[in-house]
Proline/betaine transporter
Amino acid sequence: MISMASSETAVAVQRDSEEHATLRRVAVSSFLGNFIEWFDYASYSYFATVIALVLMPPGDPTVALLETFGVFALSFLMRPVGAFFWGHMGDKKGRKWALATSILMMSAATFVIGLLPTFEAVGILAPILLLCLRMVQSFSASGEYAGAATFLAEYAPSNHRGLYCSLVPASTATGLLIGSALATFMFMTWGHDSSFVTEWGWRIPFLLAGPLGLITHYIRTRVSDSPVYQEMQEKLEAKGESDDKPIKLLLTKHLRPLLVSFGACMLNAVGFYAVLTYLPNYLQDTVGYDAGSSSLITTICLVAYIAFIFLSGRISDKVGRKKMLIIACVGFIVFTVPAFYLLNSQNFAIILIVELVMCLLLTINDGTLSSYLSETFPTEVRYSGFALSFNFANAIFGGSASFISIALIEATGNAIAPAWYMVAISVVAFIAMCMTHDNSKKKLTEIQ
């Protein structure tokens, strides 16, 4: 009897150890995949002036820079297309297949950008190749965030789902932070227009995507598809059915939660780009604040964001996703306009505190959103529902956040105009969250 009990205990311990090891591999691969995507975005943004010099037609530097960012903006058109494709394939062929395939496409496109010939060598072919590669990158990346969060949510213990899913938004900020740090180091060491930076320095972050992508692909191929997804497939096989039209199922039977999720994602889209990418430009161009101090504040905020995001995910496991997302909406509605007035103070301490508070509000949203979206849709359309709501919101509102903010200031002559835009988006997100259900205490297999 004692021997049998000991044997059963040993088997249970081994099983728990294997499950924890699998969860760690899923967590690491989810973090790395999303990190590669945002490290690429950060590198492209911070090295934009160099890319304009090397790959765009010679002439007016401002025109070349606009062309460089134009290529970046055009590539976002592929995100909704990618959302349909990867969402469909992720629900039909499995999360593992979609993630293992998308990471190869995404990292390969980013890697080849680092090998592009200059405009001096191949002429107009250089920017054309850059646009093609950025479109491939954007297409493949559109399934990364949704897929990584879905995969993690379906593997994570129910009572720690929020904490594990917060790894995904944390990896976005980590990518931005490392990209910023690498660019700053190169520029401070060699200068913006040094031969090293223009010939090879700017290529390094893109080339790093190659080995990082292969490592992530290797890890993903060494784990099974999520237990939740496998259970769904087994039930379908037992009934003699197949999940071959997840997008149609999503749009016909789950349209309401899809629209509500889109509304919830609007705050994430505008908030992330506004707080972490637009505010540094706002401080420099509109407020006239020192560029070095503005960059330092942004770096501090990125570090704080990474720390806050895990705390937010953990708290959401205790109090629920709906409460957290409503708190974030109310916080932005109440605080954004006073925050923009305080940003005009030109005082380092005040500006830092204001941005940290906005960063905290953002993490209450971001640290909760990925687990909320994973819990909103049933297993057969979870990847599709997440990918479509998240990517459409980011394609429409995220990529345009800086442009709309600048345009509002130009049209109204009011430096506070972007704050009112942020408030309007927060009101829409608040209404959406009031219409949703909180499934944070449910098992994912119970969501219908």
In short: The chain has 22 helices and no strands.
